[in-house]
Design goal:
alpha/beta; Rossmann fold; 2 domains; 7-stranded mixed sheet; 14 strands
Length: 339
């Protein structure tokens, strides 16, 4: 549906047009109004820059772990979730109705989503789970002593980026040229690009880089990679790129490119491989940090953590469609296979 489209609300036999943006604002305002009626209950706002389907974990996952820590949903804590579908800046508008409410904690999934949350709620503690380097992004003074209102589990995207090309090479031994697709708005884009290019050079695979900033740049970027002879594609971590996954995977399928993505959602959507931090660990450790904040520890006193468990998802159905024989070495690395 186009952004300017209207939805018609019927009342007293008459139809009144209402824009989708207004409907969204009303939904957020209603949620905030309900929360104000429960001022004694902490409110956890799960504000994801990704879409619901591509988020690292859901509000339900977080609620399950909070319940185990003594915060049963609906009685001890109320959960609200918001998804920006690859446009994290929009989260500021969605969170604005909660301004001035006590006992709030925000959980985000990226640097961009965290900046949007702080724009709307500058004094509210934020747990960022899956974002890039918080010091580089200006969200913390240091990893050990953040000193501000943000803590979390940061995504070691630069370290992970060096694993993508070797995984593709294992699946495609004759790989000679790989396309690297990045979101240039990601503060970690430069470091991830360098790590991936270095790993490609070690394997004598040529890397072709395409950096985009908006959806309108996607098709020209992919066309350029195809004209340049790319045989496979790496898609780096970014809410915006995750929101374009259908278009990216459709293009890759036409080119018969194996695709590697940073989140399990990529493999479930049709990519050959995904490799990144465990979503279950992210949800669990986010809950632990939220628990500490709700019990009185300032977010700025809680050190940023690194993920300790990585997850490889291998899509065997995609391998068959591409005519690839999956080696035992790759099967052994897979934590999850999709038949």
């Amino acid at each position: 549906m186009p952004q300017h489209a209207c939805i018609f609300v019927h009342h007293a036999g008459m139809a009144f047009p209402i824009s989708r943006r207004t409907l969204l604002w009303l939904g957020c305002t209603t949620a905030a109004a309900a929360a104000r009626g429960n001022t004694g209950i902490p409110q956890v706002l799960v504000a994801m820059g990704n879409s619901r389907s591509s988020a690292q974990f859901s509000a339900a996952d977080l609620a399950r772990h909070l319940d185990r820590l003594g915060w049963p949903g609906g009685r001890a804590v109320q959960m609200h979730d918001f998804y920006a579908d690859g446009r994290p800046a929009q989260l500021a508008e969605k969170l604005a109705p909660f301004v001035g409410m006590p006992r709030l904690v925000v959980v985000t999934d990226s640097v961009q989503a965290t900046h949007a949350a702080l724009k709307a709620l500058p004094q509210v503690p934020v747990v960022m789970v899956g974002g890039g380097d918080p010091v580089q992004a200006g969200l913390a003074v240091s990893l050990a002593q953040p000193g501000r209102s943000v803590t979390g589990v940061y995504n070691i995207g630069v370290d992970v980026a060096g694993k993508y090309v070797p995984l593709l090479r294992e699946a495609m031994p004759k790989l000679a040229r790989v396309g690297l697709l990045l979101d240039r708005r990601n503060p970690s884009a430069g470091g991830m690009r360098r790590a991936a290019m270095e790993s490609a050079e070690r394997l004598r695979v040529a890397g072709a880089v395409a950096e985009i900033q908006g959806a309108e740049e996607l098709a020209p970027a992919l066309d350029a990679l195809a004209r340049g002879g790319a045989q496979a594609l790496v898609v780096f971590n970014s809410p915006a790129l995750s929101a374009m996954s259908n278009e990216i995977l459709a293009f890759a399928q036409r080119q018969r490119w194996p695709v590697v993505g940073s989140r399990a959602a990529w493999a479930h959507a049709g990519a050959l491989i995904s490799y990144g931090p465990s979503p279950e660990e992210f949800a669990q450790r986010a809950a632990i940090l939220v628990d500490k904040i709700l019990r009185g520890t300032p977010a700025g006193d809680l050190p940023f953590e690194r993920p300790t468990r990585m997850q490889t998802v291998l899509n065997l159905r995609a391998a068959r469609l591409l005519g690839l024989s999956v080696s035992n070495a790759l099967l052994v690395q897979a934590d999850l296979t999709i038949e």
